[in-house]
Write a structure and sequence with these properties.
This protein is mainly α. Helices cover 49% and strands 5% of the residues.
Length: 221
């Protein structure tokens, strides 16, 4: 199942970095993985890498590169390399649609600071979008979530998936900007927060799934 590999890139982070030819000069950077991306003031996705480092804050760029490589070479790849490449695309398309994985010019933190959420102290605001909010919205599990949300018409799906991956990144960044209004030490009413951002969470999940499907279809057509 594609779901089985959704967290593959997190579960095997150090091993995957070495397989991707990333040999950091110090042990600390070994676990620095490209699960975020950076945008300019108008939310345009930064294309490429900084200082020649292909693992700097740019999962959109890497997903684009991997998709192109898969499309051109998947017939000649080993099974293991093909599976790894697909697993990375699954992960990165999810990452780029998570509001907490976007770095703005005035906020590079991706929520790595403490907040109080529903009278519970969270060490990282980021964790709200890595599971806490989703778990409260869809306590029944991933399959039920997919069944409940996958209700869009072909016309709606076509609208969501038009453009390229950089257009999708910009759309994600623009939609997610309000999430970054909450700063370190914020005291957040969980009920109000869920009501405010449930539509965004559901929309981002749908867009990520439909866009991933479009990308894979184009690769293996």
């Amino acid at each position: 199942s594609i779901v089985y590999y959704a967290s593959y890139a997190d579960d095997f982070k150090p091993e995957l970095l070495m397989e991707l030819d990333f040999e950091p000069s110090n042990a600390k950077r070994k676990v620095t993985f490209p699960h975020t991306f950076e945008v300019d003031d108008d939310c345009t996705v930064f294309k490429g890498t900084r200082n020649g480092d292909k693992f700097v804050k740019n999962c959109v760029y890497l997903a684009d590169r991997y998709a192109a490589d898969l499309k051109a070479n998947h017939g000649n790849m080993s099974d293991s390399l093909r599976v790894l490449s697909i697993a990375m695309l699954v992960h990165w398309l999810g990452d780029m649609h998570s509001p907490a994985h976007i770095r703005y010019p005035d906020d590079q933190t991706i929520g790595r600071y403490p907040v109080v959420y529903g009278n519970k102290k969270l060490s990282k605001y980021h964790s709200l979008w890595d599971g806490v909010l989703f778990g409260s919205l869809f306590p029944w599990g991933f399959s039920d979530c997919a069944l409940l949300l996958d209700t869009h018409s072909p016309q709606e799906i076509a609208e969501m998936t038009k453009g390229n991956i950089y257009d999708w990144g910009k759309d994600s960044a623009m939609a997610s900007r309000p999430v970054h209004e909450y700063k370190e030490g914020a005291v957040i009413n969980s009920h109000e927060y869920r009501n405010r951002f449930a539509p965004l969470a559901e929309s981002q999940i749908c867009k990520a799934g439909y866009r991933l499907a479009k990308m894979l279809n184009e690769i293996f057509e």
